[in-house]
Each structure stands twice: as C-alpha cells, then as structure tokens.
Amino acid sequence: MRESEHGESETRRQVDAAARAALDLANVDEAARNDALRSIAAALREHTDEILDANREDVAAAEERLEQGEYPAALVDRLRLDAGKVEDIAEMVESVAEQDDPLGDTLDARELDDGLDLYKVSVPIGVVATVFESRPDALVQIAALAAKSGNAVILKGGSEASESNRVLYDLIREATSDLPGGWAQLVEAREDVDRLLDMDDAVDLVMPRGSSEFVSYIQDNTQIPVLGHTEGVCHVFVDDAADLDVAEDVAFDAKVQYPAVCNAVETLLVHDAVADDFLPGMVERYEDAGVTLRGCERTRDIVDVDEVRDDDWDTEYGDLELSIRIVDDVYAAVDHANTHGSKHTESILTEDDDHAAVFMQGIDAASVFHNASTRFADGYRYGLGAEVGISTGKIHARGPVGLDGLTTYKYYLEGDGHLVATYSGEDATPFTHRDFDGDWTPGGSE
Amino acid sequence: MRESEHGESETRRQVDAAARAALDLANVDEAARNDALRSIAAALREHTDEILDANREDVAAAEERLEQGEYPAALVDRLRLDAGKVEDIAEMVESVAEQDDPLGDTLDARELDDGLDLYKVSVPIGVVATVFESRPDALVQIAALAAKSGNAVILKGGSEASESNRVLYDLIREATSDLPGGWAQLVEAREDVDRLLDMDDAVDLVMPRGSSEFVSYIQDNTQIPVLGHTEGVCHVFVDDAADLDVAEDVAFDAKVQYPAVCNAVETLLVHDAVADDFLPGMVERYEDAGVTLRGCERTRDIVDVDEVRDDDWDTEYGDLELSIRIVDDVYAAVDHANTHGSKHTESILTEDDDHAAVFMQGIDAASVFHNASTRFADGYRYGLGAEVGISTGKIHARGPVGLDGLTTYKYYLEGDGHLVATYSGEDATPFTHRDFDGDWTPGGSE
C-alpha cells in the first residue's frame, strides 16, 4: 500500500470512528458532558509544563522559519503559549461547561390528533470538523464546544503547531475517557485536509478558523456546509438627521476601539447635508488616533485626505485605516453597503425613525444597527454565551453563532398505533394540529 | 461572442437581476405578496386553454420519444396537464397565499443594556433556485413559495416541458407585475444548470425536484446549499413488547397505503421473541395486498419468502416490495437502521417506554416515531402548512420543511449612541442581557 493510500484509509477510519461515537455521544447526558469539560480544564492546568514544552518546540521551529523569511511574525505570536494563556484556555473550557445545555430542548409540540403528538427536539448535528491555522487554543475551544453540544469532532491544526496540538489532543482524549471512545480525532497531515473536505457523506459541518484567504479556500473546496466568515467590510452611515456628537463617538468607537476585528468599520458614509459640519471634527479625531484616511472627491473638497484607491470600498483593512464617502441620501447609503459590504454588520446614525427603517430593512446583512457601534456584533455582547463563530452565510446560522449553531433537530412522533389510512381518502379524519406546551422526555411525554 | 459565452453572460445577467430584485422583494409587505399569489391563481384559470395548448406540444414531443424508447411512460404522465390539474395548481397557489406570513417574526428580543435592544427577526434568504424534472406544476409551486417568503427565484425546468414552462412563467411574470421586476427568472438551456450551480456567490439555496439520481447529481455538483432529499429507506421495528395487532396495522399502513413515496417503509425489523407469532399473519396480509417479500435466513425459517439479495437492506423500493429481518433486540434494530437507513423516518412498535426511548434517541434520523406509521412524515400532516420539501440533510432544515425553511434571520440592534468602549476594559459596564417579549417594528420598537 502506498503512503498516500495508507493516509487516506487512516483518515477514513478516523472519520468513521467519529461518526460511530457521535451516535452514542448524542445520548450522553448533560452532567457527563459537563464533567468531561471540567476534566479537560483540570488536565490543562495539571499538565501546563508539558504543554509549554511542546509549544516551545513549535515556536523554535517557527522562529527559525521566521528568520528565513518564510513566516510572518504575527503567526509566531499567535502560536506562542505561556502559563497565563493556558489558564485562560482552561477557564474558557469551564465557561463552556457552565452554559445552558443546547440539547433536548422541545422547540415545538403539536397535537396532530387525539393521542398523536409531534415534538421537535434539539439534537447534535453529528460530526463537526475544524481546520485551523496556528493558534493551538482553537483546538481546545472547538473540542469543548463540540463536547458541550454532543458532537463528535475532527481536529486538523496547522503543521506549525503540531507538537502543541498533539499534547493538547492527548490531554483532551485522556480527560474525556468517560465519553464514547473516538469522539475526538486529531488529523495531522497536510493532505488530510482535502480528504476531509471530500467526506461530505460523514462530516456534517466544517468550522474553519484562520485568515480570510484560509476560510475562502475551505469554502471553495468542499460540499460540506461551512460555518465561518471570510471578511467584514462594515459601514457606518451618518444620516442628515443624525445627532452629530453621537455620530462622532460611534464612528470613532467602531474604528478605533479595536481595529483588527471583523466588526470594525471600514467605510464611513456621510450624508451630503451634514458633511461640512461633521467631517472636519471627525477627521481630526481619527487622525489624532493615528487612523489613515482616504476619501471620495466630495470628501476631499471638505477635508484634506488622500484619494480613495480602486479597491478601497471593498477592502477589509483590519487596521487603523478608513475610507470616507459622501452620499446623497439613505438610499444611496443602502445601495453602497449592499454593493460593497460583506453582509456582516452595518450601522446608521440618525434621529429619524423613517430613515432608520429604510436603512435597516433595505440592507442585506446579518446585523443592522441603529445608533450603535458595529463592534457590538459579537456572540458575547449579544448574550449568546459561548461563541461558536460568526457566519456571513445565510443558511443554518447567521451572524454571531452560539452553541445552538451546533445543533439540529429531530421530530419525535408519539402515537397509539395511528395509521395514515385513517386520515386519507373519502372519510378522512381531519387533523387537529393544536400546538401545546409540553416537553418530549424519553419514555413518556406530556 | 461564441454561443456558450453568450449563454453564460445571459444566465449571469438573470441571476444578478434576481439578486437586485431580492433586496426590494424582502420589503414588500404581506398583503402585496398575497395579492400577487392570487393574481397568479386567477391568471392560471383565465389562461387554462393556452397552458393546455403548450402542454400538448410538450406531450406530443415526449410521446414521440416514448415510441422511440427514449422516455419512460411515467415521465410522459407526469408531464401531462389537463383542466383539472390546472385548477389544482391554482388552488395550491391560493393555499400558499393563505399561510401565515413567514417574514417579520421577532424570534428573540433581548435588552443588552439600558436603551440597547437586540431583535432577531425572520427575513427572506434572498435568491433561491429550483431545478426540476418534467412536472410543470413544480415551476408554479416553487414560484409561489418564493413569492410568499419574499425570495427571488430562478426556475430551471426540464427541456421536455419547455413549452408548458414558458407559458406558465410568462403568466406568473405578468400576474406579479406589482412585485419588483426580475424577481422570477426562467432559465432554459441544459448548460445553464451547471452555470447556475456554479453561482454560489449569488444563489443562496437550490431546491431540486426530481428523482433520487437527479437530486444526488445536484448535491454533488454545487457548493450552494441544497434543500432536498435523495431517498427514503425507512424502517418499522416490531419490538418484543409490541401490541402485535397494532404492529400489524401500522406495518401494513406504512407499506401499502401509498408505496411510491419516500416515507413508505422498505424494511420490517422484527424482534426474535415475537417473530413466530407475528410473521405468519403479517406475511399473509402483505401477500394478499400484492407485496413482494424477501427475508433474512431467520425469517425464512418461519415464513416462506425469497432470500434477501445483497442490496436489499439499502434499497428504496418505492413499490409493493419489502424486506424482512429478524433482530435480537432494540439495540440491533437501532444499529440496522443507523447502518442502512437514509436518516428519513423510522418507527418502533412497542408498549415498553424504555425500549421506545432507546430506539428514538439512538436513531439518527429526521423523524423517529413510536406506535405510528412512517407515512405521517409529511409537511401537511405535521401541520407545517405549505411544504417546501423534505430534507435529509441536517443543516438549516431537517425532515418536512415549511415556509420557514425559505427564511433566515437578521439581527436588529436599536441603541442610543452606545459604544463598545463603555463595555470594555477596567471599568467595563456589565451587560444586562435580559430577554423580553417585544416585536421589532420598522421605525420605533417595543
């Protein structure tokens, strides 16, 4: 057997083992899943030295490649763990354990007829896979979210973190020996990514973690549904009916408070009628904070900034950079955001509710805000609990996604020997279709 | 420009036009969408002769190919319309108009802090495409479901129905002239299917309608999410604690009441302890109804049926055929269904609630029933209203799917100039994260 064939059958074996474990894991009760998470946290703390030793090997190898110019410095930073970071990871795992159980919720209960009751109940998706770049904490986070939500998980980390990942994976596996064996699988070879992405018969969801390019690559190379986001090109629109002091504070917060993240604003749209009043002070404040500004021609008639380049309207800077465009009205702002935005988060500043309604309903994005900073688009701030990710897709989950993004549902029908023949043909009995409050419980409901 | 390039740019133009229309259609109110549906129904009735003339051309061409052995007779039957069928289609469109509006529902409302309220509101997905085989009624049905749910739609029918489809499409377009222009697009060329399937940047969901092979082809050739089902390999398990009279009626109903559909049973699993009592009567009843039976060795020790073939356990007969297997207990039944089933619908007959719980929780399928016929797995019987389709996927929608399968959601955040800086760092204000009852309404909520 050739090496590549061996690798292929090994990946297949791992995915099949995960799929088998998923069937059992779906029925592990909440207490046992939470115990497993607490065991992971304890193991991380107990074996911090071991984790850091392995991580030092990865970092040393990465620094060597950094010197040879093969690696960006930021990547080495993301790779590096210390005792404080390991403690942060352990606390993150404990906080996942403290979340409400996403499983076993009766989402709907409906009587179809006397003694025939239908329940729609949340259950795990099955097998989720994650493919991530250098950060070793991504491995632990996704394993924790998977265990909490009863999903088996395939973990594929970057080769630059292979020593760290292997130690973390071994600790997780040992700490969760009470969960169905094989529920977590580590996949290591580069070629395994494409094999995994081909296994749409057995992997139900892929959650990539990494750069926009990386997530795009995953999206373009698999038929498995992908939960993730590539980029955030977000806008703030200062309407003619804005409170300009409020607008200045929000536009500042949306860019400067933390510019590296996907919910930071990239383009400021300003209504023509207030541009003269608004822009000079705003530009001064941005420039004092070190923001590089570029603007359209009409902007440059008012303030002294560079000319926008061809691709500025479509660029996620992820940095202290911002483009400014003057528009004629809220409709033009909506049109700009729908044309150039990434359907992530958009915000209008206005005291006019009709203008707000036009903007909020007219824009096709996961999150649309009125008089609030785009930076609020986040699972923690939304009160979703553990954040599984942010989705710029529209199917299954959109925007910040909590643990319920890792669930699907199952219909349970409890009857008494009911036949479809009774409800068909000439003398068909009618259905009652009466919704009721009630939970499905194994072995006897309502 | 070569022909194929022309076709490609034309398909692109149509999809882009649909995407633009979708932005406006999302904000067309319920009354206008329902009026458009009633106009479609009226147009179908008024132009029945025109529809039937076009349909006769399609049928004549298909009959010619039938004589040449190129077409199965069933396909010609599915293609054929008459005045009664056109009336049925018109009534179907009216019934879609009568459904509850799936848009604008506030799914969650949460105060993040004083004056900062988050709403999760149902909105259309955007652009849905349907690719369907011969039945011209599929075109009208999907267009109606799309209009109701505020989605733009790309319609690609089979070439064998091209005359019927063109007339139906023209009627729909004219009848819905009050909806945003371009909301429905007809695509005709064979090559356009693959082009459509490549446009995952602009098409949000594909709903194929046709044979299992056809749906599989679509699923295997696109990165656009697919809402559909390929096959239904459903099981009925007669437990040792079953009421055998009830079991016989349900197992009979599940196969014989309508064997051609995906929720009919294909394999009967019987607990070893009751097989001697149960099988002879059951087999006699099936055989009286003309069901062809095959069984495992242990079954054949009790009743005189043919031996199962290699692929019987994995086959959707869609006909009066059934395979029978004797199993040792409920766990073996669960294992068989998880191994050979298509995650569609499974049913256990038992008076023992613990056995029922093992079966219902252990099986990974969209619908799992206790003492009821598998034939209940259907959007109408579930009380979902208009059925968009049945999904054997687990992401976004599972099992019978109603109109809400054509929606996603949008987060609206209403603030008062709130900044993320307030909730960050040393003196961070805590979030309140208080759920409340309230609906988002354009221009002033709660």
UniProtKB/TrEMBL annotation, chains A, B:
Coiled coil: none annotated. Keywords: Amino-acid biosynthesis, Cytoplasm, NADP, Oxidoreductase, Proline biosynthesis. Its EC number is 1.2.1.41. It comes from the Archaea. It catalyses: L-glutamate 5-semialdehyde + phosphate + NADP(+) = L-glutamyl 5-phosphate + NADPH + H(+). Residues 7-288 form the Aldehyde dehydrogenase domain. GO terms for molecular function: glutamate-5-semialdehyde dehydrogenase activity; NADP binding. GO terms for biological process: L-proline biosynthetic process. Belongs to the gamma-glutamyl phosphate reductase family. Catalyzes the NADPH-dependent reduction of L-glutamate 5-phosphate into L-glutamate 5-semialdehyde and phosphate. The product spontaneously undergoes cyclization to form 1-pyrroline-5-carboxylate. This is Gamma-glutamyl phosphate reductase. It comes from Halocalculus aciditolerans.
